[in-house]
Fold this sequence. Notes:
- The structure is a homodimer.
- By secondary structure, chain A is of the alpha/beta class.
- Helices cover 33% and strands 18% of the residues of chain A.
- Chain A folds into 2 domains: 11-112, Chitobiase, domain 2; 118-441, TIM Barrel (Alpha-Beta Barrel).
- Chain A has 16 helices and 19 strands.
- In chain A, strand 12 (155-156) and strand 13 form a beta hairpin.
- The first copy, chain A, is globular and about 75 Å long.
- In chain A, 53% of the residues are buried.
Amino acid sequence: MSLQLVPAPTHLETRPGDGFVFTENTALVAPPGVARYAARLLGLGLDADGDGSDTVELTLGAQPGEAYTLTVDADRIHIDGSTAGLVRGLATLAQLRALAADGAVPALRIEDAPRFARRGLMIDVVRHFFGVPTLRRVIDLMAAYKLNVLHLHLTDDQGWRFESASRPELTERSSATAVGGAAGGYLSAADLAGLTEYAAQRGIEVVGEIDLPGHTNAALHAVPELNAGGAATEVYTGTEVGFSQLTLALPATTGFLTDVIGDLASLTPGPHLHIGGDEVHTMEREEYVEFIEAAAALTAAAGKTPIVWGEGAAADLPEGTLVQLWDTNSDPAPIAAAAQRGVGVILSPAKHVYLDMKYHDEYPLGLDWAGTVGVRDSYDWDPEQYLPGVDPAAIVGVEAALWTETIVTEANLFTMLLPRLAAVAEVAWSAQSDRDWEAFAPRLAAQEPFWGAAGYAHDPDALAPVG
Amino acid sequence: MSLQLVPAPTHLETRPGDGFVFTENTALVAPPGVARYAARLLGLGLDADGDGSDTVELTLGAQPGEAYTLTVDADRIHIDGSTAGLVRGLATLAQLRALAADGAVPALRIEDAPRFARRGLMIDVVRHFFGVPTLRRVIDLMAAYKLNVLHLHLTDDQGWRFESASRPELTERSSATAVGGAAGGYLSAADLAGLTEYAAQRGIEVVGEIDLPGHTNAALHAVPELNAGGAATEVYTGTEVGFSQLTLALPATTGFLTDVIGDLASLTPGPHLHIGGDEVHTMEREEYVEFIEAAAALTAAAGKTPIVWGEGAAADLPEGTLVQLWDTNSDPAPIAAAAQRGVGVILSPAKHVYLDMKYHDEYPLGLDWAGTVGVRDSYDWDPEQYLPGVDPAAIVGVEAALWTETIVTEANLFTMLLPRLAAVAEVAWSAQSDRDWEAFAPRLAAQEPFWGAAGYAHDPDALAPVG
């Protein structure tokens, strides 16, 4: 058998001798931080002591971050790493087990660690709403491919999708609808508490986004005093962009920003909060920059590190801020300058990782304003080479994005993610020198039974290797 | 009476004594280059000699460019300037005469010259087609407000609107439709010959635009070999942007560009040719820059100076090239860098001069992705202060733009232009120190009878001074 792991691990060496066969007696020995998750993922009973044979043993080691080692012998599987590393090693083990057609995981040793610290997926839950059950299944899928950031696009022109304790009118007035008159919805405080906990168990940070200062019609509809004339805007259910904006000069704006940024900061325990910043066509540069700097300062005051879309690189952002590039044809110069000031870069180039783009011209779902995005487009690029003039050390991550203008059902959603998300996951995790499209295509195809068994909709045609 | 000229002249001094009264005996004395146009504009007979009284006399003087002096005495009106200056002076005289309610043009002396060398209007004849009769009326209106560049957006996803001698299939296959299934059309070689001559008589350069490398579905539909797969795309009648592109690496592309740029260069006698460059979301930066540089080189080889939309500032453009900024929130840095290399800048910031934006939120026509654009928005800005860090000397002009996604009829078109185009004309012509919104609003309102008399549709509500 060949080892069809996705993403490819840093180092894998098979060993002589028999592999490990899971039986009804196989027990799990694991530290508390990961034990329940490991038991559920592998379907094993916990054995507090362990007698050293027929066990899967997880030990807390000194390896940094998400690095882990995984050793398979005939009588024992051993994963060593930090809690985060153990979670990644478990994903590898789950794949090895699923791929072991004859029931035996081959004897081997893996040493593995990620190329990029941040490996994400953005889901737009505004244009069409997706709630907790779908998002938990998204998180499971992300964990299977070692992704570690779920970025939720929570506000936009068409809706406000998280409960704000200090501004309840936002969801009361602006959560019921979605694109084309579809039903809306929102994530309650309890929903987000459960979701962030579920994600944390899988080593995944949930980053919430309040998109500012554009993409804000839902706020302008719910809070009249955010409008220059003091009158609320109408509900918007179309798909145009760029027409709405908050105005820092209005007296109500700063208080509003302080409230909603503070509320979202409380609802998302991770260290980051995304403040948007994309596609603002109604402001002159000076006003835009001033707004982004104010929103970033409020975010820092709420105890979070801000993330902004690529346009925000024009602002003077605090060191440690992350800028998320999306426009394939972005000017690298402002990002290079920001990187020199200590800003990190997340790469989401639309041509490669916007998974709402059609797979090909005839595809029934998706948009094509960034062209079509085949699996090979998602796979065949090097993030460190993407932005000439930007220090490769400043590239902290890669994030796929699924905007949902045309994505209505859960099946739509997973069909756009799979197989492309697995390709992006390997871009983000595996060393460039270990990546090769010809070798990857069959490994990717070998993942399909897993998706079928787990009930993930996916696009089977996209698995056929493309020239 | 007050002198309600638009745009405000550089220097105006009224004089004691009677004004000039046009009678049936008033004769015109003018040099050949401008005589026929002046006679038609003023409705006067030509008097080759002139006896020195009751005459409008135009003399060729040594003043540079479009500068002119205009003197009105009881028995003689005298305009002095180059041919271009005389045309501008005639526009002033036509306004003075139309505004002279009692029939007498007051005695005065005007010394006048433009602030910016290029003062333009772009009309998109692709999304909806407007032919020669409408464009002649547009040219007349431009001349009345001393504009000197008519930029025709001739190609886009929805149609190819000029006859290409070497590629007749472009109009044969891609000119019949427009947005939403509206009837298309195109400008034949004879149409463009007549139109450019008509414009030249009024001191107006016609600049044709072939939008490259995006906005090219009409070409991709008509010329299959421009597509990577060799198959023609479908006709497109929607209003999305950014999805189409030419590909320099395909063997057919350079020959195609050489042909169509050469053909358009022959059809437009002026020194410039616009090669587009906007809203390309399907290319990575390097491919985009390479394409723009190739298209600029082909344009130079065809004997024209290229103009590109703002994104094109990323390319290494020949000295003298003009970059036309449109995105209100543009990063000034690449434009500043290009300006230092000798590139000129045309300002078309959407928030101020995109006359396809709605006048206000409830306006039935137009788009609003750049916000609403009231008359004051069009008027109240200073082009030399617009781009921080860009040498004001690099700002060569201001250009209004009318995209026509929602503009179907000639009445639609002029309603969007008026009154805003007159405001933009003053921004481009008059000194900043002579411009003041409170003073301008009543001057602008005084223009309305002229539009009524000339049959130009306009928005009367927009003339009420806004706060």
